[in-house]
Amino acid sequence: MTKKPVKKVVLAYSGGLDTSVILKWLQEAYGCEVVTFTADLGQGEELAPARKKAELLGIKPGNIYIEDLREEFVRDYIFPMFRANALYEGQYLLGTSIARPLIAKKQIEIANKVGADAVAHGATGKGNDQVRFELAYYALKPDVRVIAPWREWELDSRTKLIEFAEKHQIPIAKDKRGDAPFSVDANLLHSSSEGKVLEDPAIEADSIVYQRTISPEEAPDKASHVEIGFERGDPVSIDGKILSPATLLTQLNELGRANGIGRLDLVENRFVGMKSRGVYETPGGTILNVAHRGIESITLDRGAAHLKDDLMPRYAELIYFGFWFAPEREMLQALIDKSQEFVTGSVRMKLYKGNATIVGRSSPYSLYRQDYVTFEKDSVYDQKDATGFIKLNALRLRLLAARNQVKR
Length: 408
Hints:
Blueprint: E1 8-12, H1 17-30, E2 33-40, H2 48-56, E3 64-68, H3 70-83, H4 100-114, E4 118-120, H5 129-140, E5 145-147, H6 158-167, E6 183-186, E7 191-194, E8 224-231, E9 234-238, E10 241-242, H7 245-258, E11 263-269, E12 275-281, H8 283-299, H9 302-321, H10 327-339, E13 345-352, E14 355-362, H11 370-373, H12 385-407
Helix pairs in contact: 1-6, 3-7, 4-5, 7-8, 9-10
C-alpha cells in the first residue's frame, strides 16, 4: 500500500536503537524531512550522544531539539497529580503515564514551529504509551498526521532491528547486540522495568532490576528524619530550605534511595486489555505521597477528603489511559486544586528500611482541635449531644428492623 506523502515529521527521539532505526526508516519509507526531539525529564542519561547520533544519521543541527523539561515536568505535571494522591489500581504512582503528555505537547509545539505535518513515536502496538502519545497529539492538534512505525513496519524482532541498523551504519551499543534482559523507562519521578526476565509474575525480580533504590535489607540500621513543607498542596521545602520543584524531588529521591523506599512489583491492567508485570521504583514520590496525605489529614474537612478519595481512582485512570488533556481530567483537576487552598504546613517523617512513616504534622490552618478530642475534662463539647445524634442516625435502621420483624 502506498503511504500518504509526508513532508516533515517530528520524532520523539531518545537516541537509542529503536528510535535511531525509526529515524532512518522514516527517511526511507516516507522520504520526508525528520526533526528530532529529545526531552530531558531527569532520566539520568547523558543527552549529548543523542544529538551526535542524530547528526550522524543526517539530521541538520537546526532540526535537532533537546530540551531540559525537568522543572516543568515536576511543577506542571507531577505536582498537580500528587495533589490528588493519585494511584492507579491502588498502588502505581504513574511515573511513565504522567511523562507522556508533556513529551507530546512539546512535539506538537515544535511541529507548529517548523511547519511539520506529522509526528512520530517509538511506542509499540501492545502497550499503553501509543495511546497516551496519540490522544495527546490529537487533543492538541486534531488534524496532525501520526506515524507509529511499530504498527507499520516489518521489523518485528530485535534481530531484524539490528540487521537494519547494521545495513544503514547506525551505531549499536555492545549490550544491544545481545538480548536485553528487560526494558527500562526512567524519568525524575521513577524507573519502570518490564519484559523478558520479568514476564513471569511468579518469579521474583532479580536484584539487577533495581536501579533507583538499595534493598530495604541493605538500608542503614538508623532511621533518617526529614521535614517537608507544603503550600497549597505542593511541597516547597525540605528541612526548612525552599527548593525548586525538580530540586526538591531530586533530594527526596536521594533520601528514598538510601533508605530502600519506593519499590513496587505490580501486575496491572493495561488500557489495551492485557495484563502486564512491571517493577517500579519511585523513591521520592513514595515519600511525597505519604507526606501529602499527612498534611491533608489535618487541613481537609472530612467531606472534602472523602470526596477526593472517591474521585482519585477515576482521576488516576484518566492519566494512566492517556486522557491528561481531556475535559474530564481538567474538571477533576479544578476540584482537586480547590481542595488544596489550605493544605499548607509541614510534615515530619521517619525513613527506615523501606518505610516512610509520618511522625508529626502541623499547619496554621489545622482543623485538628485538641480541646475537642482530649480525654480530659473539656468545656467545648457536651457528650450528651451524642445521644440525639445517634438516635437520628439509627432511625432508619430501627424502622427497617421493625418491618423485618413483622415479616417474620
